[in-house]
Amino acid sequence: MNTLSLGTHTGTHIDVPSHMVKSGKTLGDFSVDSFIAHAVCLPLESLTKEYVDSINTDVVDCIFVYTNWQKTATEDEYFSKYPIISEEVARALAIKKIKMFGTDCPSVDHEEFIIHKFY
Fold it and tell me: What pTM was computed for the model?
């Protein structure tokens, strides 16, 4: 017999507003079209406020960043010291109305989860 065990942050998943905001939208509140987007993928260090400000949302409305953090997946620090985006960048993403943001890290922010609440 073979066994495969995965954590809830394995692969892809979506955090909707109700994940962190009591009266926030649930997954059922979004149309399928909300999850169809034109994406760009770039290294985290390239994601600056200036970059976000320059985005034409008719061309790009989803951003994925990579950090290669998966290399630490077996380390104790994997869930505690992962790189995150700045609040300045997160605010710029929200103002720009970027549909989706994704990262290869366990989360976009750390405890208190301020960035999770921007949307």
Answer: 0.82
